[in-house]
Amino acid sequence: MLRRYIMHLCLIALLSWGQSISGQFAPPAGQEGSTAIAADSNVFVRWADECQYFPSWQNIADTTLGLVSYGEPEDALGQADGSVLSLGDGGRALFHFEPPLADGEGFDFAVFENGFSDSFLELAFVEVSSDGEHFFRFPSVSLTPTNTQVGTFDTLDATLLHNLAGKYRMLFGTPFDLQEMQGLEDLDVMHITDVAIVDVVGSIDSAYATYDSQGNIVNDPFPTPFPGGGFDLDALGVIHDVNNAAVGESTMPEISLVPNPVKDFVRFYLPGGEMYKARLYDVSGNSLQELMLTNGSRTDLHYLSPGVYFLKLSGEKQTAIKLLKY
Question: For the chain, which end, N or C, has fewer CB atoms within 10 Å of the first or last residue's CB respectively?
Answer without folding.
Answer: N
